[in-house]
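Hi R.,

Here's the chain you asked about this morning:
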Amino acid sequence: MNKEKIKISIVLCIVSIFLVSLMGVQIKTIKKTDITALETMQEDELRNEIISLKEKNDEIQAKISENEEKIKEYTETLDNNQKITELLNNEVNEYQEKIGLTDVTGSGVIITLTDTDEQAYGYSNLVDFVNELKYAGATAISINDYRIITTTEIVEISKKYILLNGDQRISSPYVIKAVGDKDKMLEVFNLKDEGYIDLYRDAGYEIKIEGTDSVTINKYDKEINFEYIEKGED
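And here is the predicted structure, written out as tokens:
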């Protein structure tokens, strides 16, 4: 009987050990399964986070590129506007200079015409000199420091006085200043036997011309009447 009990006890012990061993294997398997699942879950979360960060980074890069394009566009627009403004300002300044609204300084010539007992200058002589200076390339002209413009009237009111622009009375000596190509104007006026210097001196007039690197022509200080200037077609 005792032997049978001993056998049964041994068998039960072996079975118990076997069952405990199986349980241990199951527990280890479960633990391993949980860790793997956790690691898998963490990898998925990290992967999703990386994907999310990449998408956000792509959006930021797209915004940066968009802003860079806008900055480039604004810069080009600003540059163009500045160029347009400069061009318009240059055109306005050039226009004002042509019609006599600004002082002009540059190289040019100074012609002095002086009356003598033998010969006196008249209004037609002054008109001739102004026209000859324009032909020689003068961009600005004055007589006795009064600016000559396209609407200037030169009228003789007596043998001694000439009237400019209706109310500016001048008399000899007549100092004509012109801004332009100094060498060209000197060449035109000093042509032998054909230039105004020889022609007037031969006729008994007193005349002097000199070139200068700096001569100033004052602006026209009266209101310009545009009444007879026709508007161009659009």
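One quick note: Residues 228-234 have pLDDT under 50 and may be disordered.

Cheers,
M.
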